[in-house]
Amino acid sequence: MALPWLLSLRKVDIFCSPMSGRLYSVLRSHSSAGVRSCDALVYRTRGHPREVLSMENVVLPHVHETDVRIKMLAAPINPADINMIEGTYALLPTLPAVGGNEGMGEVIEVGRNVLDLKPGDWVIPVDAGFGTWRTEAVCKASEVMLVSKDIPLLSAATIGVNPCTAYRLLMDFETLMSGDTVIQNGANSAVGQAVIQIAASMGLKTINVIRDRPNVKDLMETLHSIGADWVLTEETLNNSKMADLFRGVPKPKLALNCVGGHSAGNLLKHIECGGTMVTYGAMARKPMQLPAKHLIFDDIKIRGFWMTRWKKENKKDLRKFNTMVSLLSEMVRKGKLTAPICTPVPLHDYKVALEDLTSTNGRKYMLIMD
Amino acid sequence: MALPWLLSLRKVDIFCSPMSGRLYSVLRSHSSAGVRSCDALVYRTRGHPREVLSMENVVLPHVHETDVRIKMLAAPINPADINMIEGTYALLPTLPAVGGNEGMGEVIEVGRNVLDLKPGDWVIPVDAGFGTWRTEAVCKASEVMLVSKDIPLLSAATIGVNPCTAYRLLMDFETLMSGDTVIQNGANSAVGQAVIQIAASMGLKTINVIRDRPNVKDLMETLHSIGADWVLTEETLNNSKMADLFRGVPKPKLALNCVGGHSAGNLLKHIECGGTMVTYGAMARKPMQLPAKHLIFDDIKIRGFWMTRWKKENKKDLRKFNTMVSLLSEMVRKGKLTAPICTPVPLHDYKVALEDLTSTNGRKYMLIMD
User: Fold this and answer.
1) N or C: which end of chain B has fewer CB within 10 A?
2) Among this protein's residues, is B89 annotated catalytic?
3) Average pLDDT over residues A14-38
4) B280 contacts in A (CB within 8 Å)?
5) Average per-residue pLDDT in chain A?
6) Over the stretch A132-149, which tens digit does the pLDDT of each residue have?
7) CA distances from A290 to A169, A302, B89 (A)
8) What one-character-per-residue DSSP string does B193-217 give?
9) In this predicted structure, what is the pLDDT of residue B11?
10) Pick among A296, A300, A303, A310 to test the B interface (most B CBs inside 10 A)
11) Is the ipTM reported for this complex over the cut 0.90?
């Protein structure tokens, strides 16, 4: 598990490189020659981000032979980041920690043994737990991965987790052929938007379920504009209109669930016999309500997916991850994959985003390091 | 789908052989030479068994070249039989129909082209939907399967569905080795009892969950006596005592759920990472309540099993089914597998069993054809 590399405490600055296990203690003396610092959103106890996160100036460690120093450029606020700060996530960094798992930065300094990265390169974290909500970071070169500079900054900052999750969801559970159908709830989530676009590029049809809301028609239009074949509300999913829909399109072999509660059960009943429902989130924060008959009589399989576990399982050979990111970058270049719809906020105005976390407008924020 | 072979209507007797598609209409004239009849528990509409089942005298078809005539000896009342009569099962015979899917009979007459069965043989239905609650039956020889006569009658009458289900649950989802643990709810069900015994013979440890009830200690003792390692109530499953248990035994790779509701979620949280929960029943008649985190973070797989589907998938070559029944019969002979604890009731006293269907004593009835 990657830990935050450096954190300022009251009297002593502690920074650690999780990959090497090195742990430093440095007197807080920012004026000392050669000691660099950065701003970071730090939490020292677990709880609601609004209450536990604060902007701190933290010391950066020296750039050793195999290290890189990165100027962070952008980092999204994802649901997993919030769960991690609250302490409800399966992967919890030792406190104090810096928030944020996903993001993108530019290399500004490399250790003398670093051959595969150079100043000016764009990089993203390899693992979860990086602590991306900061202006700068020093880490092992092996902890980051090169991304192409010819894609938009916001795409680069959001390519390493959500589109990768979407890609694996579509690739790893069912053998899907052009013309097959995929159904998903939470279709307006970052993963959901990537699923729509990657599925469209594979010739798959998507049935996209969203919660009803005041601006539902606008959202439906937006999702259609990125390639959604059908967009419908949870209420429609539960009524007889679905029978009409399935007269014109094959029942889905694959269902993707990031909501849980009754929504998961509503997806389940529309899956083709022998198909799979994959759960990768629990936005409703309620247990999935699943009628057993679909498993018993229709042989529906229910699985879970966690990108962090996938990365761990594929850590020894990063080529698979690299290839996937290259493929997704190519989709971005071709205009087939866009960054999720999000609201940019300067890092130092992070409170604007945190204030809005509990609202149900589904707005996604992107911290921009100015 | 197997249909009931023969049913008496008011003026005309209709009987059909589902395998051949033959349909006969015979005037109701039981005194006619050569026309045999039998008693059968018939339902003409779907509903509560107590309200829709009645004993009728129905005409038996002539025994053709490839047919057999069977004197039924014993047939259990299983939950699936009830669901089928109520109309909530996935496989519903055309009405009117005879109740009962499992049972055993003795061959008393064979058609001249039947070479692999002879009078005196014991047979069980190959498929679900046989209609076993009757005194006699005529069917294609291929619709029944020989069972050994050197096992007790009640074991033979209950070997074709529940022990087979238990065997497949233990064989088809996880590779279990001696010393591994299996957890199950509804452990006192017919399948549950077979799981305990088959698992014990494989060197597996079983954690058996039952509902609390007035005679819970007696039931615990009974399950221990057939080989259960641990027997505990749903309440215990949900408390801190489980941590103590798992200090001495590995966490289960396999969980078997026939209850649903919260019980399914309670099983889920004790499964070893990467393990599987298989659902084969829904006794609580409530959707499974499953926290997503176990799927996402622990990679727990959730599957369903239906013996009827397994039989259908293995219908072309009955050797696999035959081998399984022979193996289970051998276990019975060795005293390692007993018939489920049940209360015998003469077929004509069937109302005694039906009156008790809604009670929660968990009593299982076996209809005996006198």
Assistant:
1) C
2) yes
3) 47
4) 296
5) 89
6) 999 999 999 999 999 999
7) 20, 10, 17
8) HHHHHHHHHTT-EEEEEE---TTHH
9) 29
10) A296
11) no
